[in-house]
Specification:
By secondary structure, the chain is of the alpha/beta class. The chain has helices at residues 9-18, 26-37, 41-57, 74-77, 92-99, 129-136, 151-164, 189-197, 202-205; strands at residues 59-60, 67-68, 82-89, 106-110, 142-145, 170-173, 200-201. The protein contains 9 helices and 7 strands.
Length: 208
């Protein structure tokens, strides 16, 4: 959409900003802007203030790198969770997907990405330091690989396996009930829940 298609420069600029969001095309962006225009001033202020607070107050958990409002996220701070079982995921969307299954009572470690040479992402770009400390300190009894079933996800799994397999820690992977190329957030809760419950020793997946 060009600016000369709009009756208002502000409408055009707002649409352009919404269109910068992932998965939002120009037409969808315009619908969102027009929807906001129908809202009351108070609702718009609440919407804007929430975005500002999100930017200013969100931080990353010192223990697992999950998004949090505090230095330690609610999951890591929960004494009822099994802190010896650590589920390794790519980002917060995977944490939410697994939590929705209600089948895992351990904690998480969010890598903040996966190894992808094509995208210029290497092992040093991932958040691994706090996980490595837990393993070296003997705080982890099991590492559960729960990355997407893509070449990049498998490469990241293998890198982590090589890094940690010499330590006295059990290394497992969620069962491959999830199709190759699938991302956890798009997997139905029943399938994902079963994959977590029926996880396998990671070594057995190397022969398949």
């Amino acid at each position: 959409m060009e600016i000369n298609q709009f009756s208002s420069k502000l409408l055009y600029e707002a649409t352009e900003e919404f269109a910068k969001l992932p998965g939002i095309g120009k037409k969808t962006a315009l619908r969102l802007v027009l929807h906001l225009l129908k809202q009351s001033k108070e609702e718009i202020q609440t919407f804007g203030n929430t975005l500002l607070k999100l930017h200013d107050e969100i931080q990353y958990c010192e223990q697992c790198n999950n998004i949090s409002e505090n230095s330690i996220c609610e999951i890591c701070a929960n004494p009822k969770r099994d802190h010896s079982k650590i589920c390794i995921v790519e980002d917060i969307r995977d944490v939410i997907a697994i939590e929705n299954t209600h089948q895992f009572n351990g904690v998480y470690h969010v890598l903040g990405g996966i190894i992808s040479p094509m995208d210029g992402v290497g092992p040093n770009d991932l958040k691994i330091d706090s996980l490595e400390k837990k393993v070296k300190d003997g705080d982890a009894e099991e590492l559960i690989f729960a990355l997407c079933t893509t070449m990049e996800g498998d490469t990241t799994n293998f890198y982590l396996y090589k890094k940690f397999h010499s330590f006295p820690v059990k290394i497992t992977s969620i069962a491959r009930g999830i199709s190759f190329g699938d991302e956890l957030e798009y997997t139905d809760e029943l399938t994902l829940g079963k994959s977590i419950i029926n996880r396998l020793p990671y070594e057995t997946t190397l022969t398949k």
